[in-house]
Amino acid sequence: MELHGWGRYPRQDAQVVEPVSRQQCVRAVPNAGPLIARGRGRSYGDSALGPQVLSTRHLDQFHDFDPLTGLLSCAAGTSLDDILKTFVPRGWFLPVLPGTRFITVGGAIASDVHGKNHHRDGTFSAYVSSIQILLGNGECVVASPTDKAELFHATCGGMGLTGVIVSAVLRLKAITASDILETRIKAPSLDAVLEAFDANAASAYSVAWMDCMARGASLGRSVLVMGEPCVEGPLVARRAKAFGVPADMPSGLLNRAVARVFNATYYRRARSGAPTTRKPFESFFAPLDAIAGWSSLYGRPGFLQYQFVLPKEAGVTGLREILKRIGQSGLGAFLAVLKLFGDANDNPLSFPMKGYSLAVDFKAEAGVFELLDVLDGIVAAHGGRLYLAKDARMSEATFKAGYPRWQEFEEVRARWHAHGKFMSTQSRRLGLA
Fold first, then answer.
1. Which of 47, 16, 14, 13 is nearest to 423 (CA)?
2. CB 238 within 8 A of CB 282
3. Interatomic CA distance for residues 218 and 191, integer angstroms
4. What are the beta bridge partners of residue 13?
């Protein structure tokens, strides 16, 4: 069957194996050819694509929960949405929540996802106590930060290339209310938004929408959005009431003119210094979840989300150069999100480092790939790297420059029977065994 990631680019025919139990999953791997695990297909590019794919979507059970410690044991195919709907009413929340709640636990670990609180709380893997991993030789092992630690750290952020994540134990955090208090600040330039990030570094959550099409003195103008957990109020997990987008919308629907009008209108209508507003956690953390299938807006050709991180000391110079290149390109940049990251962790392929991360959406059209090659060079020159969970086209050289511990990662894979068994279209492109 034909598969694609959330960006709908690229597409690939694949044989899909869908075990409906842990036992079937364990039996499927030893006799299979090279494969890659796939959850709900929410990684953007080709990291969950390959000639043979093992789907974990039926492995979605809760196994155990300790209400005293917040430790939750669940299967890898369990979605973050299911966790929130079940445990928010009981006073528990995910310590790290990315831009969508419709990913699986296995995918969140394999991508080592981050949220709007990375500057304070780190990545998803910081709250994973242990992982059960199905190795290439058919053996199931449990790895943790203190037991089989090298396998644990390689699996967190390892894009499914160490083995199939079968289940995990997560540490949820206790909450007394589910809403978020949101405050917005308009920043008229790149310098202004970076200063605002620093001035509000104590905020629990922060993220900035950025107008990548602004030029001149308005280069990098943004709206910084900050959030603090409510202390009192209801404990509610609302079911999604998303309106749908028809599949394969006309590819010309989103164009540069539309993007320019949208960006200018969004910035103009933002109310700087407005009173703090109370918002449901769903709309604060994942506003696009309200639009089911929103990636279809780009049409059948799909889109590429280009997300990079630059070290903080190089952030101003590098971001300014990249924004100028995007503006000069004449290509529509439809959605851009800027985040402040905290310290890196010990996982060899985890994306975040202390600095600034910008994610920009581009329609997959003529000229975009050439532009992104240029941006790759700027990112590399400033000591940055690209996010593997969003990538669909970076070169082997760009990957290995951005992730200097890739050889250490490969050595761990070799010791734990992954070579020749777990590979994806992405891993082949990036020169991993």
1. 47
2. yes
3. 10
4. 2
Identify the helix (H) or strand (E) that includes residue 124: none
Question: What is the longest distance spanned by two Cα atoms in the chain?
Answer: 61
Helix, strand, coil distribution of the chain in percent, nearest 5: 30, 25, 45
Q: Are 137 and 417 in contact (CB under 8 A)?
A: yes
């696009």: which residue's tokens? 288
Backbone angle region of 8, left / alpha / beta, with phi > 0 → left and psi within -120 to 50 → alpha: left
Flag whether pLDDT at 91 surpasses 80. yes
Say how far apart CA 348 and CA 413 lie, in whole Å.
12
- Helix H, strand E, coil C: the string for 49-92 is CCCEEEECCCCCCEEEEECCCCEEEEECCCEHHHHHHHHHHHCE
Q: Which pLDDT score is estimated for 255?
A: 64
Cβ contact 325:182 at 8 Å: no
For the residues 48-60, what does the mean pLDDT come to? 96
Q: What is the DSSP letter of 100?
A: -
Q: Within a 10 A sphere around the Cβ of 204, how many other Cβ atoms?
A: 15
Q: How many residues does the chain have?
A: 433
Q: Average pLDDT for residues 133-162, to the nearest whole number?
A: 97
pLDDT, tens digit, 9 for 90 and up, residues 285-344: 999 998 888 888 888 899 999 999 999 998 899 999 999 999 899 887 777 999 999 999
The tokens describing 178, both together, are 């589910």
Strand partners, 164: 134
Query: Does the global pTM surpass 0.85?
Result: yes
Sheet holding 222-229, edge to edge: 277-279, 180-187, 222-229, 205-210, 336-341, 355-363, 303-311, 385-386
What one-letter code names the amino acid at 91? G
Q: What is the mean pLDDT of the chain?
A: 93
Residue 335 is classified by DSSP as -
